[in-house]
Amino acid sequence: MPLSAAVISGVQKLVLYETRARYFLVGSNHAQTKHRVLKIDRTEPKDLAIIDDKHVYNQQELRELLGRLDLGNRTKMGQKGSSGLSRAVSAYGIVAGSHRYTHTVPSESIQTP
């Protein structure tokens, strides 16, 4: 399975970053070795636009992405205190497991012609 199509099962940590134009919701696995990013547009008050970045980032790629977002969204290049990207919220969760519910039909209830 290519890395870009992989799904992180059991997202344990969520961090919400914000710029003036977007929110970036970063989900990480327990070991914080795999990260996914949702981009949420906040410029249109009536429409909710969510972009699922299908790429699975490693720690280094995520740091580089966040650094580029910070630098590219500063009001004046290089100015301290005018960070273009700021951490809004961090949350941790416990993944207890998943359950699959199935419904089986007894074979005697199936009618054949």
General description of the model:
The protein has 113 residues and is mostly beta strands. The chain contains 1 helix and 5 strands, in the order ββββαβ. It has one helix at residues 59-72; strands at residues 13-18, 22-28, 35-41, 49-57, 86-92. Strands 4-3-2-1-5 form a 5-stranded antiparallel beta sheet. Strand 2 and strand 3 form a beta hairpin. The longest helix is centred in the middle third of the chain and has 14 residues, at 59-72.
Q: Helix share of residues?
A: 10-25%
Strand order of the largest sheet: 4-3-2-1-5
The outline comes out as globular
Helices and strands, in N-to-C order? EEEEHE
Q: Which strand-content bin applies to the residues?
A: 25-35%
In the predicted model, the low-confidence regions spanning at least 5 consecutive residues are 1-5, 98-113
Number of separate helices = 1
State the end-to-end CA separation.
43 Å
Mean pLDDT: 76
Radius of gyration: 20 Å
Keywords: Hydrolase
Protein name: FIG4 phosphoinositide 5-phosphatase
GO molecular function: phosphatidylinositol-3,5-bisphosphate 5-phosphatase activity
Organism: Oncorhynchus kisutch
Give the topology, please.
Blueprint: E1 13-18, E2 22-28, E3 35-41, E4 49-57, H1 59-72, E5 86-92
Antiparallel strand pairs: 1-2, 1-5, 2-3, 3-4
